[in-house]
Write a structure and sequence with these properties.
Layout (H helix, E strand, L loop, with lengths): L5 E3 L3 H4 L7 H7 L3 E3 L2 H7 L5 H13 L19 H12 L4 H8 L1 H6 L16 E4 L13 E6 L2 E5 L1
Helix pairs in contact: 5-6
Organism: Salicibibacter halophilus
Protein name: Amidohydrolase-related domain-containing protein
InterPro entries: Amidohydro-rel (IPR006680), Metal-dep_hydrolase_composite (IPR011059), Metal_Hydrolase (IPR032466), Metallo-dep_Hydrolase (IPR051781)
Length: 159
């Protein structure tokens, strides 16, 4: 599809009337991923579009499309860190399971970047880990309960 690898941002203008005929099928068949950046859209976009945006993400996911997590941190009101937690919750609200939302920020993101250095816990990969109190694969809100953060195997945050 003209060299397109991914759809970035699901802004208000792109979703009001749904997907054009055959477009959803075509892009999912070609492996085009979507990074909807729902958090920035819910803060800075048209509030009346929120349900439409969530529905388009659900349709893309239900059609077999690969969803990637991205918050567009740095935009007005979109803070580094907390905005990713909010993005994951919005992905769950749009129909992904908590586990799928986590994968959108980890292993699926690494796959999209064609990287075998991060994205999963495995020998030979980067030792960047977040230790959570709870189970965000079952309850996405638990992602906010950060106990420790390791970067390159070194403890960098301890709560």
């Amino acid at each position: 599809m003209a060299g397109v690898d991914g759809l970035e941002h699901i802004g208000a203008g792109a979703v009001r009337d749904g997907w054009e005929d055959d477009l959803l099928e075509e892009i999912t068949e070609q492996g085009v991923s979507m990074t909807p950046t729902l958090r920035v859209e819910t803060l800075n976009g048209d509030p009346e579009m929120r349900s439409d945006q969530l529905e388009r993400v659900k349709e893309f996911h239900d059609a077999g499309g690969q969803i990637l997590a991205g918050s567009d941190a740095g935009m007005p009101g979109v803070l580094f860190g907390p905005s990713m937690h909010e993005e994951l919750a919005l992905l769950v609200e749009s129909g992904l399971t908590p586990k799928e939302a986590l994968q959108s920020a980890t292993s699926h993101a690494a796959d999209a970047l064609q990287s075998n250095e991060f994205g999963v816990i495995e020998e030979g990969r980067a030792a960047d880990l977040v230790v959570i109190d709870g189970d965000p694969s079952q309850k996405i809100e638990d992602i906010q309960n950060v106990i420790e953060v390791f970067r390159d195997g070194r403890l960098v945050v301890e709560n």
